[in-house]
Recover the amino acids of this structure.
């Protein structure tokens, strides 16, 4: 635990040591606000809730999460610090989890800075704040799943741009796995079971209920397992590819 | 008494290429072992395996009784390692970086500050304490790497080219530092600077193509060439070329 906290703090400081953190937060907030008001029509709907805000989160994360996760391991490889890092008396599990938690904590900070939206709907009406809280938690869980996949992909390369592009592409497939767009490609030839499994991987499908404020246990387990599985693969990849 | 560092039958293959070929040796406390060899001889690969970064194809290393494969955490605790090129997090300051290392090495509060201050004093980093590492000169970066390796006063030090990129004065300082620490540590340094062997090593080993070709005191090695010149010894041992000691004074 001690090592996890130390490494996490170092990683988190790493974000704020460069302009990345500030640029990320500003763009995240600007995009979230623009999508909520102009595309989602928060004020025109005449309803005091944040559903138009949460609906766009998967799309925001699709481009912004890879920007956070791309440096986690690729940067260590590029600068050679991975050799220093992995010869310290820490376990691989501590290393992988601490890096992931740092990126997740950063996302939580960015997400929490959207609180003016919550204040706005509370001033304008009488929203169900339980629903809003549930949506925030669900959104953070989805961000965690995105980040874990991104961290795993970052471990495969020393090039951050490659990590970014591949992560975005992978997350796009994950996000749309439950949509007809992807499922049509399977329906023609694959048995129904396979189609159902692919559909079950759709981040969007799992997020739809969350955006409405309903945290289904199955959705929570889904995002939790994606995080666990991706981080496990992350540790394996780092272990196998240390030498390159 | 068991030796501080014991390397047992290390083998590393990368595909069909054998980088390290059944290497075994012991280093006792008080010894400074110089690892010599042409580029690509397997020096760095061997050091990476001793430090638990690379998994050996066969064999293992035992550091103060801790097998690096069976109990990597205990082995890594007993070890200070300066990787090749002295990597360090570029966006951190010297003191921030050493503070992080000290934390992971288990030091807290006042002890952490003392350890960091002592390591910076030993490696003469006082003037760059609050400077980001990416802005440091090569010499300072190397010394940050050294400070990081010796911060927890480990019984075994593995230094991959500790004086590479330093000017003559800095080399002198680093060698003095290594000699001062030698009495109660087992130290392995790799180098391709032969004068370094004379300056700091109590024993030297020439390796090429992953095998030990010679292992002796610097004086003993000199006896291998008629000229008693280490450059000639190095050439003779690693290439098999008989120089007879004429005109190869420069490596």
């Amino acid at each position: 635990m001690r090592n996890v906290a130390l490494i996490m703090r170092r990683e988190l400081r790493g974000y704020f040591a460069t302009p990345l953190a500030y640029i990320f937060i500003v763009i995240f907030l600007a995009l979230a606000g623009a999508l909520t008001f102009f595309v989602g029509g928060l004020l025109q709907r005449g309803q005091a809730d944040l559903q138009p805000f949460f609906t766009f989160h998967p799309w925001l994360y699709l481009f912004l999460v890879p920007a956070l996760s791309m440096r986690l391991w690729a940067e260590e490889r590029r600068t050679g610090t991975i050799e220093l890092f992995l010869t310290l008396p820490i376990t691989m599990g501590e290393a992988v989890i601490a890096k992931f938690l740092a990126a997740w904590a950063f996302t939580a900070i960015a997400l929490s800075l959207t609180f003016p939206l919550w204040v706005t709907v509370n001033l304008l009406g009488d929203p169900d704040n339980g629903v809003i809280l549930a949506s925030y938690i669900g959104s953070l869980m989805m961000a965690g799943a995105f980040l874990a996949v991104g961290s795993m992909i970052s471990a495969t390369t020393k090039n951050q741009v490659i990590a970014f592009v591949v992560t975005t592409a992978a997350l796009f497939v994950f996000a749309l796995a439950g949509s007809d767009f992807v499922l049509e490609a399977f329906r023609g030839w694959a048995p129904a079971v396979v189609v159902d499994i692919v559909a079950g991987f759709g981040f969007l499908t799992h997020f739809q209920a969350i955006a409405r404020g309903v945290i289904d246990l199955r959705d929570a387990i889904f995002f939790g397992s994606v995080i666990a599985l991706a981080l496990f693969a992350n540790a394996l990849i780092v272990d196998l590819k240390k030498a390159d | 008494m068991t030796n501080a560092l014991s390397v047992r039958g290390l083998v590393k293959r990368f595909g069909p290429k054998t980088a390290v070929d059944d290497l075994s040796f012991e280093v006792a406390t008080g010894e400074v072992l110089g690892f010599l060899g042409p580029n690509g001889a397997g020096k760095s690969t061997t050091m990476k395996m001793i430090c638990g970064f690379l998994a050996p194809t066969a064999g293992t290393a035992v550091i103060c009784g801790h097998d690096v494969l069976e109990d990597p955490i205990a082995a890594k605790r007993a070890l200070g390692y300066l990787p090749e090129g002295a990597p360090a997090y570029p966006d951190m300051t010297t003191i921030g970086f050493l503070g992080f290392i000290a934390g992971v090495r288990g030091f807290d509060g006042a002890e952490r500050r003392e350890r960091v201050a002592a390591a910076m004093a030993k490696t003469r980093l006082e003037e760059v304490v609050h400077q980001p590492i990416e802005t440091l000169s090569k010499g300072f970066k190397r010394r940050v790497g050294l400070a990081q390796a010796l911060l927890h006063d480990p019984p075994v030090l593995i230094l991959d080219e500790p004086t590479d990129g330093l000017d003559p004065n800095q080399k002198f300082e680093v060698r003095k530092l290594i000699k001062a620490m030698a009495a109660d540590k087992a130290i392995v340094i790799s180098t391709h600077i032969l004068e370094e062997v004379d300056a700091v090593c109590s024993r030297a080993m020439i390796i090429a193509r992953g095998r030990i070709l010679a292992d002796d005191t610097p004086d003993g090695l000199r006896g291998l060439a008629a000229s008693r010149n280490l450059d000639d010894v190095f050439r003779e041992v690693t290439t098999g070329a008989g120089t007879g000691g004429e005109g190869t004074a420069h490596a």
Observations:
- The CA atoms of residues 145 and 226 of chain A lie 6 Å apart.
- The radius of gyration of chain A is 19 Å.
- The mean pLDDT of chain A is 89.
